[in-house]
Design goal:
Strand order of the largest sheet: 11-13-12-14-15-16
Order of helices and strands: HEHEHEHEEHEHEHEHEEHEHEHEHEEHE
CATH topology of the largest domain: Glutaredoxin
Number of strands: 16
Structural class: alpha/beta
Strand content: 15-25%
Radius of gyration: 29 Å
Helix content: 25-40%
Oligomer: single chain
Number of helices: 13
CATH class of the largest domain: Alpha Beta
Distance between the termini: 47 Å
CATH superfamily of the largest domain: Glutaredoxin
Number of domains: 3
């Protein structure tokens, strides 16, 4: 009888607590009523919603985990609790507590709703929320980035030339220096404007020398039009190449392709999509650096890239950013280097000290065909995809 009495007493206390006290008072969990619910979830934000019932024992037990979740995602994800019966019915909630993730599409559209079926463990819920937050950001980014943003001739000025061209070590640039009154410039204009749609990996710009005389003088422009090619890597008046051939789009692009020899500086890759974009060719060197030695290692790598003309790409990842990659390649000591051919699904690790000299030997052995690649044991994945 005494045990039964204690159980009943506990239930009464629990029930009174649920009725008289907010679970989330003085926490970062936002308690929302029916009349304000749509305003909260109909935005561009990501909102995690707990549907609960005041008399539900499991709801009370889960409240501490939910508070911690709100602390972790404060200012990143709205963490909301709602107990209104009508809201629960609208979203077909059948048991309590239930969790749903609302991915906002703006006030004029209904949000996408994802059921949270990851259990009630804090780590699992954090991983699930992060994974969906990442997808939501990518989805939004795709809407706001113009599809043809790279297929235009960029109007360059004294204010933007250095940030867009000089500081861009990853791309080739073709730049036309002209004057609006110049007849030859006007004749070239249709061909020049067609370049972006015909070029791959070459950015195209133009400078009005009547408005930006000092910039044109910096590049020793003495006649119009002057066409300069800026190759990948360091860009300055000394490295700029003067084009003096036929003024047709085909001939100008052929000149750029012929001189596209220098290696691009290394790209930071953390996702498989980024790696595939950068490493689509027959050979890519993928480096793994410790965060503490990143700058020192990048200096060595950039020095190597500036003096190499072999047709391959460079990418790097920091240790711990994607542990699945490190496992697949069998890496245990860092810095590490892997020669990678994604199309064939093979790789080859550098088994000597990380240095410019050893990198040169490593690349020569691969390009000569003497080295034998190792078959990838598994497809490369994003770390979050394993969660």
């Amino acid at each position: 009888m005494s045990r039964l009495f204690l159980r009943l007493l506990f239930c009464v206390i629990l029930f009174k607590f649920a009725l008289g006290t907010s679970y989330y008072k003085d926490s970062k969990v936002l308690e929302v009523k029916e009349d304000d619910f749509d305003n909260k979830v109909k935005s561009f934000k990501v909102t995690l919603v707990k549907f609960y019932n005041e008399s539900c024992k499991k709801c009370v037990e889960f409240s501490e985990v939910y508070k911690n979740l709100a602390n972790i995602f404060h200012d990143l994800v709205q963490v909301v609790a709602v107990k209104d019966e009508n809201v629960s019915k609208k979203y077909k909630v059948k048991s309590f507590p239930s969790l749903k993730l609302f991915l906002g599409n703006g006030k004029e559209s209904e949000p996408d709703v994802v059921d949270v079926d990851e259990g009630r463990d804090l780590d699992d819920l954090v991983s699930f929320t992060l994974k969906n937050l990442k997808k939501h950001v990518k989805h939004r980014a795709a809407k706001f980035i113009p599809k043809d943003s790279k297929k235009v001739v960029v109007q360059l000025t004294s204010d933007n030339f250095h940030s867009l061209v000089t500081d861009d070590t990853y791309n080739q640039w073709l730049v036309k220096f002209y004057a609006p009154w110049c007849g030859h410039c006007k004749n070239l204009e249709p061909e020049w404007m067609s370049l972006p749609k015909k070029s791959k990996g070459v950015k195209v710009g133009r400078v009005d020398c009547t408005s930006h005389q000092s910039l044109c003088a910096q590049f020793n422009v003495k006649g119009y039009p002057t066409i300069l090619l800026f190759n990948k890597g360091e860009k300055n008046p000394k490295t700029a190449m003067n084009y003096e051939g036929q003024r047709t789009a085909a001939d100008i692009l052929a000149f750029a392709k012929k001189n596209d020899k220098a290696l691009s500086p290394p790209t930071h890759a953390t996702l498989v999509a980024e790696l595939k974009e950068k490493c689509s060719g027959p050979l890519c060197l993928l480096f793994f650096f410790k965060p503490s030695t990143k700058e020192e290692n990048l200096k060595t790598l950039k020095n190597f890239a500036s003096k190499h003309t072999a047709p391959f790409a460079l990418a790097y990842s920091l240790v711990g950013e994607n542990e699945q990659w490190e496992r697949v390649f069998g890496l245990k000591e860092f810095p590490a280097v892997v020669g990678l051919n994604l199309a064939k699904g093979v790789y080859l690790p550098l088994n000597s000290e990380f240095s410019k000299e050893n990198l040169n030997k490593f690349v020569k052995s691969i390009l000569s065909g003497k080295a034998t690649g190792i078959k990838l044991s598994d497809d490369l994945k994003d770390t979050n995809d394993e969660l």
